[in-house]
Amino acid sequence: MTEQETLPAASRASRMRLSAASYATRLEATVVGRLWSRLLEMEFVDRSVALAAKAFVSFFPLLILAAAVSPGSVRQEMLAIIANRLGVSGEAYETVRQAFASADQAREATELFSAVITVAFAVSFTTALQRVYLRAWRRPPGGGVRNKGRAALWVGAFVLLLVVLSLIRSLVPGSSGPVLSWAVGLAATIGLWWWTARLMVRGEVRWRALLPTAVITGVGTWIYALASSVWMPGNVSNQFAEFGAFGIAMAIVSWFTGLAFLIVAAAAAAPALADGEGKVGRWLRADQQTAVETGAAPALPGPSRPVRLSDAFGRGSRGSGVVPGSVSH
Predict the structure, then answer these.
(1) Is there a domain that residue 110 lies in?
(2) Neighbours of 198 (CB within 10 A)
(3) How far is CA 142 from CA 112, 115, 146, 186, 196, in A?
């Protein structure tokens, strides 16, 4: 190849690189670009897997504990809600049902020590959930013992919501019970996640700025539950037929993983929207410079370099300048 032929090829490659860089710069200024950058900055893969794992080891022991102190009709409706959401049916359903057993059996299985361990696992999940929100909003670490109190408060609110929905289904006759439970549950879930976001950021971010997270998480989890009722039964049945009770656990872990990705994405969506300079961003910030409450510590600085996909797996943050000071969350 002659020098004259080489120069045009190099020129074309240079123009392509410049064009790609221009498109990337424009994309980064959009909501989608800011959301993707924030997800990478949060190491969303690592966060989602950790959140799903802690949810799995906390969820069923906590529900069995709640069932132990609930009336029989409420306990049965609680089991029905769980089975519907997770798509558990047939022999797999019988295996799960045995875990809830009768009130006396449940109480025997939930002695004081077991109850304390169960609550500790649930609080551990809430701690992981708080890290997600703190990283999403670049909040500095802190909170100490109060964080444990916030975690216990959230666990209590979650159990209360489930008991209320189960109570509605058991008290309202016919098909009206599930319909009313669904409607109340959707509204209450949005409200719960709005309050959750505010609680997890220690009240340091404005309520208005947290609204997108609440709506996306609340509506998204209900759509996810409806969609999973289509694909989960076959998955649970196949896993149960091949691996027994362990197969049920594997299927439920995959369900929690998908849910965790949704929660993390919803947490990142709010700051991605609030950072915009358009009408939505200004409204979410209440026409202030930032969404942080007056008197709260300023947000940690953003990445000192473009965030790479490896950061989503927790690999790119060491020594790279990605959100200094936030890795310890």
Answers:
(1) yes
(2) 19
(3) 31, 28, 9, 32, 17
Q: Evaluate whether residue 276 is within a structural domain.
A: yes
Question: What's the alpha-carbon Rg for the chain, to the nearest Å?
Answer: 23
Q: Which tops the pLDDT comparison, 157 or 316? A: 157
In a domain, 171, yes or no: yes
How far is the C-alpha of 280 from the C-alpha of 132, rounded, in Å? 23
Domain range enclosing 54: 41-294
Closest-CA residue to 129 (of 233, 200, 28, 227): 200
Three-state secondary structure readout of 92-117? HHHHHHHHHCCHHHHHHHCCHHHHHH
Please state, rounded to an integer, the average pLDDT across all residues of the chain: 79
Tokens of 95: 């295996």
d(CA 209, CA 79): 35
Task: Read off the pTM.
Answer: 0.80
- Spatial neighbors of 230 by CB under 8 A, at least 6 apart, are 87
Number of domains in the chain: 1
Q: What is the pLDDT of residues 288-311, one digit of tens each?
A: 999 999 989 998 888 877 676 666
**Does residue 142 form part of some domain?**
yes
Residue 240's pLDDT band (boundaries 50, 70, 90)? confident
